[in-house]
Design a protein that fits this description.
Elements: H1 10-21, H2 26-44, H3 47-58
Length: 70
């Protein structure tokens, strides 16, 4: 898994991604982002690398504790 910058214009890519989400509600933006993940994953095509990326993306992200309803 590559963790060093490997995109020639990372800022340009990020800007294009944000532009693609403009005008969408939260659910629509989530769908576009999920579709992008699957398209990029298909380009990678290596299951081991993809699973490493999933684990790395999840690492350090706190989970929400469920709220109790009284």
């Amino acid at each position: 898994m590559k963790t060093d910058a490997n995109i020639p214009d990372a800022d340009g890519f990020y800007e294009a991604w944000l532009d693609a989400l403009q005008g969408l509600d939260r659910d629509q933006a989530a769908v576009v982002s999920a579709r992008l993940v699957f398209l990029l994953a298909n380009q990678v095509g290596d299951q081991k690398v993809l699973l490493e990326c999933v684990a790395a993306a999840r690492e350090g992200v706190a989970t929400r504790s469920p709220r109790s309803i009284d």
